[in-house]
C-alpha cells in the first residue's frame, strides 16, 4: 500500500519521554497535554514535556510515597501531587513565592479522593467517591478555600478541559452520568442523563465501563461518546458509537449513532471534527463525519464510515542519542499496540516506547477514495487545511483525463459559493453592527473568521480558471460552459461578479470568433454591465465593429442607472421604499441576470460537447 492510500498519520515530531519501567512512572495531564516522567517518587527527578513546550520542565521533590496523580495548574504556576486517598499536596512554581509544600485534605468524612482536575491557574476540583469539591488555591497564603461542594456516590469520573465539564458516573450500573460545568469560580450542576446499556444475558450484570466513554468537542458542541459493544442477544451486526449531545442548557440528548459493523477492541479519537475509531484486531481505523448526511429515523441519525478502513500510515522511530549512527535504519513503530493509550481529542501515547503523538488526517488521499464529488466537497469544506486540496480537486475535474460532467461541476461551484456567501453576509452584518456602535455595547461581537473553506473569486480565478482556459486540448464550448457555470453560480448567490471573470469569458469568445454568442450574452445581461467591461468592449472594435456601439450603450445604461439610484435614495422616505444596490445595479437587475442566465445560457451549457 502506497503512501497515497493512508488518510491517517502520526505527527512527524512526537513528544519523547523516558519509557515506563519499575523505577520510572509516567503520567499524562489532559488539560495541559503534558507527560510527567517521575523517577523514584520524584527524588531522582521529574521531567515534564508537552507538544508546545520547547524546553521541558525538570525538578526534584521529596519521595513521600507512591505518586497516584501529578498535574500542573494552567500556565504551570502550581504543582499538585496526590500520594494518598485523603490528601493532595501543592507546591508553588511562581517566582518570589515559597516552594514549601502545603496540603489539602478532602472535606467529606470517610471519602476517598479518586483524582483531581485543574480548571484554571488557581482553581482545582477534587473528585471523591462521595462527591465533588471545588477549591480556590491561594498560593501566597499556601492554603485552599472551599468554594462549593456536592455530595453523591461516584464510581468514576471524566474531564473535558476544552469545555471545563466533569462527568461523574453514579448508581450501581454506573450508567447515570452527572455533569458539572466550571467557569470563573463558579460550579454549575447540569441535568443528569442515563446511558442506554445493551441487552445482556440474565446471568451477567451490565454496567457502564469508563473505558467505553469519551468526551469531545465536535463542531463546537460537546458530545459524550459511548462505545456500545456488540451484544450476543441482540440482532446488531456489530459495535456502534452513540453520541449524546451535552448542551450548556437543557437536557442531554442522543443524536447520532456511528455503525462500526464489527466487534472487538476499539479506541476513539477526534481529529479535525472527525470521529476516528481504531480497531485493534484488524489494526485499521475508520472515520465518521456527523455533518455529512446520514439516515435519520425521526430521533437519531445513523452514520457509516466515510471511507474504507485503513491502517495509520507506517511510522519509523528515528535513532537518536549518542549511540546513533548514520548507517542505522529507523526502527518501525508497532502500530495499534496493546501498550497504546488514547486520550482526547487526538493524542496517542505509547508508555512502553516513550512517545506521545498527535493523530492527523491527510486530505490528499481522500480525494481518490471518495469518488462522489458533491460528497467529497461537503467533507473537505469542513476541514481546517482544505483550501489547496479543494482547488486541486477543481483543477482535476476540469482536466482532460478526469473531466467531470457540467452538472457535477455546477454542484461543486454551488457548494463553494454557498460558503463564500455565508462569509460575505457575516462580514456585512459585522460591519453594520460596528457602524451602528454595537461593538461597544456588545463585547461578544467578533469579526467573522475567514476559514480555508472560503474560496473567493480571486482564488478560483488564479488557481483554477486562468490555467484551465489556456489548455489547448480542451473543447472551447466546454471551456465557455464552465466559465458561465461559475458566473451563474455567483449570480445565484447574489455575489457581485468581478470584472476579470467577465474578461476571461469575452477573451475566450473572441479567441474562437464567437462574436454572435458574445452579442447574445451582452444583450440578455448574462454578463453584467460594468465600466471595466465597457472599456474592454471598446478595445475589441477592430476585431468586432459592433462592440463599439455595445460599449457606448453599456456606459449610457450605467449612467442612467446611477441617476435613478441617486434619485431613489434621495426620495426614499417619500416613496416609502428602499433601494439595494449590488455593484451599481439594483437587486432586481441582478435577479433578472440570474433568470436570463438560466433561460439563455443553460441551453448552451446543455449542448452536447
UniProtKB/TrEMBL annotation:
Entry keyword Membrane: yes
Keywords: Autophagy, Endosome, Lysosome, Membrane
Residues of the Mic1 domain: 383-560
A Gene Ontology biological process term: regulation of autophagy
Compartment(s): Late endosome membrane; Lysosome membrane
Pfam families, sorted: RMC1_C (PF07035), RMC1_N (PF21029)
Keyword Membrane: yes
Single GO cellular component term: lysosomal membrane
Regulator of MON1-CCZ1 complex N-terminal domain mapped to chain residues: 26-144
Superkingdom of the source species: Eukaryota
Subcellular location, principal: membrane
Described function: Component of the CCZ1-MON1 RAB7A guanine exchange factor (GEF). Acts as a positive regulator of CCZ1-MON1A/B function necessary for endosomal/autophagic flux and efficient RAB7A localization.
Recorded family membership: Belongs to the RMC1 family.
Protein name as catalogued: Regulator of MON1-CCZ1 complex
Organism for this UniProt entry: Homo sapiens
Gene that specifies this protein: RMC1
